[in-house]
Design goal:
single chain, mainly beta, globular
Length: 93
């Protein structure tokens, strides 16, 4: 997800989440640095992933959830909603 660090600098975070209960997924949150995806040749050895915390997504239903995370010791929780790009969208369960 996209956010800002404590200095106000734009910051991308990633999380690989695994199911731990019905509608609940959790895992490690990380940052990644390396060459751009369009680099030719692309050197996967230059990619560095750094764990910075953890994240949990808890789904209320197929359209809304809560993202709770702790990154570099700072804990936050955000309501998230599914974004439909073209109506009617698909049905999530």
């Amino acid at each position: 997800w996209f956010t800002y660090d404590t200095a106000g600098k734009p910051w991308w975070l990633i999380a690989e989440l695994h199911k731990v209960a019905t509608g609940v997924y959790t895992g490690v949150a990380s940052t990644v640095t390396g060459p751009p995806y369009f680099a030719v040749p692309f050197d996967p050895g230059s990619v560095v992933e750094t764990p910075v915390g953890n994240a949990t997504v808890t789904f209320a239903n197929g359209n809304s959830a809560t993202l709770a995370y702790t990154v570099n010791g700072v804990a936050r929780s955000k309501a998230i909603t599914r974004q439909v790009f073209r109506p009617p969208g698909t049905v999530c369960r």
